[in-house]
Amino acid sequence: MVDFGFAKKIGSGQKTWTFCGTPEYVAPEVILNKGHDFSVDFWSLGILVYELLTGNPPFSGIDQMMTYNLILKGIEKMDFPRKITRRPEDLIRRLCR
């Protein structure tokens, strides 16, 4: 999910290196500048689902660098709130691989 001015069409197996986006929604591979494909859109969708269910994004620090550091620790190490049941948690974890 991005401002369409930054949107790119990439083919299967291709990557791009554009760094843009709201810090709480940026995927780890974008932060690490490893090149990324459309899977970063699935990451952002997972973050959005989490925020819709809880009212807050799962990774939020006092500044951008802290937020990025939290993201780099990974969703797999995160404890989900009890109000998120197993099925939505599984969906979010699959989206945020």
UniProtKB/TrEMBL annotation:
Keywords: ATP-binding, Kinase, Nucleotide-binding, Serine/threonine-protein kinase, Transferase. It comes from the Eukaryota. SUPFAM superfamilies: Protein kinase-like (PK-like). PROSITE patterns: PROTEIN_KINASE_DOM (PS50011). This is cGMP-dependent protein kinase 2. One of its GO terms (molecular function) is protein serine/threonine kinase activity. Pfam families: Pkinase (PF00069).
